[in-house]
Every structure is written in C-alpha cells, then in structure tokens.
Inverse folding.
C-alpha cells in the first residue's frame, strides 16, 4: 500500500475520526475469541520462532565484519518531561536516533514529533495506545497502525517506515499483516532495561558488556525510568564514541 493510499484509508486526513483514547476507546470489541489449546500451542511455537528471528536478524548475527555502528532507539514517547532533554543530549553529541512513538502522544505533543524529524531523527510506529497486538483482531490492528501513521504524518509530514510492536510481542500472522501494510518490523538486540530502572547505575549495569557493532539498543523516552535514560545518555554517548562507535538511524 502506498503512502497516499494509507492516508486515504485514514479518511483524507480528517481529525474527526479520532477519539480521545482516555475516554472513548473501548477496545473490548477488538479482542479475538480465545483460540483452542492446539491452535494456541501452534501459535506459541510460531511466535517463539518469529521472535527469535526478529531479535536475532541474520543481518546482525555476524558482527565480525560489521561496521562499528550503534542504533539507538527510544520507545513510548514523545513525553513532555523527558523527550526534549533526550533530544538536547542527542543534538549536543551530533547523534541521530530512531523514535518509536505512540499515536496518542503524537496527537498530544506534535511539536516534539516535528522537532524529532527536523533534527534528523527517524520516526517509527509503535501503535496508537500501546496495546498488545496479538490480542487485537486483524481489522483493529490495521486501524491502530494506520491511525498512528496518520498521527505521525499530521505532526511531522512523514509516514514512518518501521513498526515496533508494543512490548515486543507479535506473532507471524500480525507480522505478515504489518509487512503488507508497508512497515518492516524492527526489534532490538540490547535492552537497557530503563523501563524498570531506579537509577542511572541500573542502566549502566544492564548495558555493560552488551554493546557490539550493529547493536540496536532499546531505550524509552516516555516512562518513569526515562529520567535516568536522559541523565546517563551523555556519559554513554561519550564512552561509546571513545570506543570508536558511530551512530545511525535504522533507515
Ligand atoms: Zn513500548
């Protein structure tokens, strides 16, 4: 599906389609009926295989000859509290990253999304409300992805390329659908665990000895632990630069 088609499906850019997620988004009708045990087991096996493939993509498996590039990714934003600080640090270090944003937050803080794009960062789709995609029906998942595309487009003027499922949870069926919609899926290879960090040291320890050429590092700019992400970022960037690493966006 082309960019124009995707926007047209969304209703020619009309904001009137969109409801306030905090008041009107009843997703119970979006839930799938419970699969039978056999189907469930089959889906679990496929899901595990799929996740393994996504987390360990072949392109990243052989790091021996890979260039010394790191890919920083930030999920769950934008947030008014943490994202501007993270953007300040990235700008000061001349580093570009990829932000997997949430649709409802783009609607809330479009100026921050515009800034991400203006400063050379990549925008990715992380769903509208951070719902578990495996629990959504096909039509609801499709609507969720398109709605987020539209929010990002409205804020920045660009349609995101990559999609990252909330919580990293996705199975083969959903993966196929999202690919058909024109979004390759990009997971991460190293988790900073900032989503549960209680100090900058927690992030430091989580990343120790994990950094390799071509690593895709998962951070967050929209959770409470993001305060520590913003705080430790200059130190990490300086350390990785000293070790000879360059930085890139996923595109
Ligand atoms: Zn997330």
């Amino acid at each position: 599906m082309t960019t124009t088609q995707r926007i047209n499906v969304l209703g020619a850019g009309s904001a009137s389609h969109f409801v306030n997620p905090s008041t009107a988004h009843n997703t119970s009708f979006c839930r799938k009926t419970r699969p039978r045990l056999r189907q469930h087991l089959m889906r679990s096996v496929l899901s595990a295989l799929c996740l393994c493939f996504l987390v360990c993509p072949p392109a990243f498996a052989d790091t021996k000859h890979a260039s010394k590039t790191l890919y920083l990714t930030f999920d769950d934003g934008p947030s008014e509290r943490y994202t501007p600080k993270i953007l300040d640090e990235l700008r000061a270090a001349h580093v570009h990253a990829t932000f997997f944003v949430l649709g409802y937050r783009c609607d809330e803080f479009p100026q921050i999304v515009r800034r991400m794009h203006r400063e050379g960062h990549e925008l990715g789709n992380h769903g509208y409300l951070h719902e578990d995609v495996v629990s959504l029906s096909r039509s609801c998942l499709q609507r969720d992805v398109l709605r987020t595309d539209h929010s990002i487009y409205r804020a920045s003027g660009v349609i995101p390329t990559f999609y990252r499922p909330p919580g990293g949870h996705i199975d083969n069926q959903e993966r196929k659908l999202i690919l058909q919609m024109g979004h390759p899926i990009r997971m991460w290879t190293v988790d900073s665990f900032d989503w549960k960090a209680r100090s900058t040291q927690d992030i430091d320890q989580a990343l120790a000895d994990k950094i390799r050429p071509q690593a895709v590092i998962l951070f967050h700019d929209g959770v409470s632990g993001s305060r520590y992400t913003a705080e430790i970022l200059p130190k990490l960037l300086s350390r990785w630069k000293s070790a000879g690493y360059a930085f890139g966006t996923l595109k």
Q: What stands out?
A: The pocket of zinc ion is lined by residues 75-76, 126, 130, 166 (CB under 6 Å). Residues 1-28, 33-38, 44-65 have pLDDT under 50 and may be disordered. The two ends are 19 Å apart (CA to CA).
